[in-house]
Amino acid sequence: MTTRNSEEPAAHAAEEADFGFRRIPAGEKAAAVRDVFESVASRYDLMNDLMSGGIHRLWKDRMVDRLNPRAGERVLDLAGGTGDIAFRILARAPGAEVAVVDLTPAMLAVGRDRAIDRGLLTGLAWAAGNAEALPLPDRSVDAVTIAFGLRNVTRRDRALVEARRVLRPGGRFLCLEFSRVTVPGLDRLYDTYSFSVLPRLGRLVAGDQDSYRYLVESIRRFPDQPTLAGEMTAAGLERACWTSLSGGIAALHIGWRL
C-alpha cells in the first residue's frame, strides 16, 4: 500500500506553468496559489456568493446530488478548505466520512471554524496537502471530489493520476469547475463581467483586486469540456463524461476507476 507525502513535488528547473495569463517556473506555482488563497480566505465564501449571484450553491448541490453519498462511504474532497462540499455531503449522508485536503492552511482554518459553528465534530478530517502528491494510501476512498480547484493545480495530469490512485475500484471522481461557455453571445457578456466587474468586486469586498484578476485569468486558461474529459481518460479515469451548467459557465465532469 502506497502513501504519498503532501509536499510540493519536485519540478524540473526549466519547466513552466500558467499562473493566470503569465508563465512562471512550475516549482513556484503552488506557493503563488497558496498566497492568493491566504489573501482571500476570510472573504472567499462571501465573494463566491457575490460573484455568482449565489448560483455556485446550485452547482455544488448538483455535484453532491450526482455523488449521491451514503453512510459509511469515505470521500476525499480536494481544494475544499472552507467546507462547502464536505458539509453538503454530511448533510446528505450522516455517517459518511469526508477528508478535506487543501493546499492553503488559511482556507482549512475557515472550514474548521465553520464546522465547529455547525456542530460538525465527527465525520470530518482536515489536512494541508498537494493534489499532486496526496497523503492517502492507494485505494482508500470511495469518491474524490474537487470544486473550483483543479485549475489551480500546477500539473493536472499528476493530480488526476493521484485521484485515481486513491480511489477504490468502482470509485468515482467528480470535478466541478468553470468551463467553456457554449451559448452564443453569452461568452461576450461573461468576458465583460469577468474582466471588468470581478476584479473591482475583489478590491471592494476582499481588498484584493490582483487575486481575483488571477482567478478570472485561470478560468480562461482552463481546458474546455472535451479536453478535460480526455485528460481524465489519459489518467485512467474511465467513462469520462460531463454536464455543462448555466450555458457552460461551469461544468461537472465525472469519471470512474473500474
TrEMBL record:
Any GO BP: aerobic respiration
Residues annotated for S-adenosyl-L-methionine binding in this entry: T82, D102, N130, A131
Keyword vocabulary terms for this entry: Menaquinone biosynthesis, Methyltransferase, S-adenosyl-L-methionine, Transferase, Ubiquinone biosynthesis
Coiled coil: none
Gene3D superfamilies the UniProt entry points to: Vaccinia Virus protein VP39
Catalytic activity: a 2-methoxy-6-(all-trans-polyprenyl)benzene-1,4-diol + S-adenosyl-L-methionine = a 5-methoxy-2-methyl-3-(all-trans-polyprenyl)benzene-1,4-diol + S-adenosyl-L-homocysteine + H(+); a 2-demethylmenaquinol + S-adenosyl-L-methionine = a menaquinol + S-adenosyl-L-homocysteine + H(+)
Pathway this chain belongs to: Quinol/quinone metabolism; menaquinone biosynthesis; menaquinol from 1,4-dihydroxy-2-naphthoate: step 2/2; Cofactor biosynthesis; ubiquinone biosynthesis
Membrane spanning stretches: none
GO molecular function: 2-methoxy-6-polyprenyl-1,4-benzoquinol methyltransferase activity; demethylmenaquinone methyltransferase activity
Pfam family, one: Ubie_methyltran
EC number: 2.1.1.163, 2.1.1.201
SUPFAM superfamilies membership: S-adenosyl-L-methionine-dependent methyltransferases
Highest taxon listed in the record's lineage: Bacteria
NCBIfam families: MenG_MenH_UbiE (TIGR01934)
Database matches in HAMAP family: MenG_UbiE_methyltr (MF_01813)
Family: Belongs to the class I-like SAM-binding methyltransferase superfamily. MenG/UbiE family.
Primary role: Methyltransferase required for the conversion of demethylmenaquinol (DMKH2) to menaquinol (MKH2) and the conversion of 2-polyprenyl-6-methoxy-1,4-benzoquinol (DDMQH2) to 2-polyprenyl-3-methyl-6-methoxy-1,4-benzoquinol (DMQH2).
Protein name: Ubiquinone/menaquinone biosynthesis C-methyltransferase UbiE
Organism encoding this protein: Stella humosa
